[in-house]
Amino acid sequence: MSKDNPLKLLPRAMLAAFPLLLAGAAAQAQLIGALQGSSHLSPYNNTDVAGILGIVTARDNNGFWIQDAGDGNALTSDAIYIFRSSASKPLVGSAVSVSGRLVEFRPGGDPLNLTLTEINASSGIAGAAVTVLSTGNALPAARVIGPGFLPPSAIAPKIGNMETAPGYLLQPNLYSMDFYESLEGMRVALPSAIASGQTASGDTFVVSSQQVPAGSRVPAVLSAGNFNGQRIMIDNRITAAPTVSAGARIDNITGVIDYSFANYRLLLTEGATLVSNNLPKETAAIAPGRFGIASYNVENLPGNASTTRFTQIAGQIAGSLGAPQIISLQEIQDNNGTTNNGTVAADVTLNNLAGALNAATGKSYKWVSVDPVNNADGGAGGGNIRQAFMYDSARVSFAGMVGGALQDVMATAGANGQIVLNLGAGRVDPNNPAWTNSRKPLVTEFSVDGQQIIVIANHFNSKGGDAPLFGVGQPPDEVTATQRLQQAQVLGSFVQGLLAINPHANIVLTGDFNDFQFAASLQPLYDAGLTNMTNTLDAGDRYSYVFEGNAQALDHIWVSPNLLAKGDLAYDVVHVNAGYLDQVSDHDPVLLTLGAIPVPTAVPEPATLALMLAGLGAVGLRARRQRRA
């Protein structure tokens, strides 16, 4: 035994009296590591065990953790949870002998979750017992997560079910899910960590300070092929944790590793030290003469929201965004919010916001939107979220007819290459099945400095319902992506039709696309010839939303080739909400500024135009076929 073996504190005769007995089997296993095993399921699952020895390291309402001196195998955890909810629990530091049934507990009964290996020593289990052998013992040394021992960023191999893959052994040097599994229940210390998201319900995701990219605002920005498996949640179930925003530094983090509800957690057992919590917020300015287009998900804003809520949102638009000339809004709710009484109008909501914005800026913002069919566009029941535009009427003109909820926007060729829309504001193919229970794109034609610009506000299908990153299925099943792909195909076909009329048209797509700039579901928008401005940012700046400590870009602005070539563009995500405790919305707004709205010149020759229009007809025919399918 090593000199720090906690079981050495017991008399030798007492140790000899408590060998590990596996009920129904002749084999003996002396250490917890044999019970935990070297895969995600214990080889002793659903087996009665007796005389398991260890030191109590932590307790919660339902039981306690014990840890022994280890078996020297890096794949096997040296600790285990003892479920004993209705009985007394030994004090931390007690040396105990435990008997009961070893089980793999699946939190919440959710088949997507991994399991937690535990011994059920409750009174209903035959032979269950917890015997205290001594008290006041030193705790096993915490395993330090730091230089030479850091979790990988890759989460898991792509092998399907992690629990049933034949012969699979943990690979903690390659995958973070295996790394944390090999430490399940053990005492672990993080000498220094940086918060990768804001505290929510007392819990905070962090990354070891050793793994934070130099100069980054937040330590875990999601990118293609990297979903930041190095993150772990600091859980306050046992001991209170600091309440912080992303970017905060927390030192002296010590606790036990647990798993529940699709995440590994470090349950604090000692008070951590908050070192800093001062991530600055950003502001943007629009230089004189430049033109600004912003996109902002205002997180379920109803007409009956408080005056303070409208003032806060208007304050961010006016101050943090520099009062753009066009603001694309998502999650505008109807006048009475989630009161589910058939109300769909949002004129009160939008008038309240316009009033607050005009008071904050001294400008004259007006709005345009299309009311949806009641409860047909997803979101909270009765809320009827939709997209809308605010526009500075001193520089931006809108004089078109506003369409109905199920009325198609149609485009034809006008004089001098102008695209003629049948509606000044309407929805893209709203009867297409791609938009079932989801928001339909809002197409609006504006005139800026005498030039036509077509702006399309979007809010694609939510990612809610996808399998968790730290779940049993690998890679996780992204079930919601199918509908987003269909939506991108419909929208991409519409844009292709516009560019077939005039390839030099000024077209901007804005909104919450609910997927990442590299996602396959958004590929049809690239195929339509659009450029995603998110890709122009530094890698560490590509986020507008933080989910479970993963900073990610869901909000995007796309531009047509003419704007990219001639618009003198600048783009930014203005970080004022995502990752902060005092957020006004859960999304950061994004801002595109232009030097000027380009003239849509270079109208195609007649023969070329005829071919383009033929292509547009094919696009329209394909869309009609999709609707009938």
UniProtKB/TrEMBL annotation:
<feature type="domain" description="Ice-binding protein C-terminal">
    <location>
        <begin position="602"/>
        <end position="628"/>
    </location>
</feature>
<keyword id="KW-0255">Endonuclease</keyword>
<dbReference type="InterPro" id="IPR005135">
    <property type="entry name" value="Endo/exonuclease/phosphatase"/>
</dbReference>
<keyword id="KW-0540">Nuclease</keyword>
<keyword id="KW-0732">Signal</keyword>
<protein>
    <submittedName>
        <fullName>Endonuclease/exonuclease/phosphatase family protein</fullName>
    </submittedName>
</protein>
<keyword id="KW-0378">Hydrolase</keyword>
<dbReference type="InterPro" id="IPR036691">
    <property type="entry name" value="Endo/exonu/phosph_ase_sf"/>
</dbReference>
<feature type="signal peptide">
    <location>
        <begin position="1"/>
        <end position="29"/>
    </location>
</feature>
<dbReference type="InterPro" id="IPR013424">
    <property type="entry name" value="Ice-binding_C"/>
</dbReference>
<feature type="domain" description="Endonuclease/exonuclease/phosphatase">
    <location>
        <begin position="429"/>
        <end position="578"/>
    </location>
</feature>
<dbReference type="GO" id="GO:0004519">
    <property type="term" value="F:endonuclease activity"/>
</dbReference>
<dbReference type="Pfam" id="PF07589">
    <property type="entry name" value="PEP-CTERM"/>
</dbReference>
<dbReference type="Pfam" id="PF19580">
    <property type="entry name" value="Exo_endo_phos_3"/>
</dbReference>
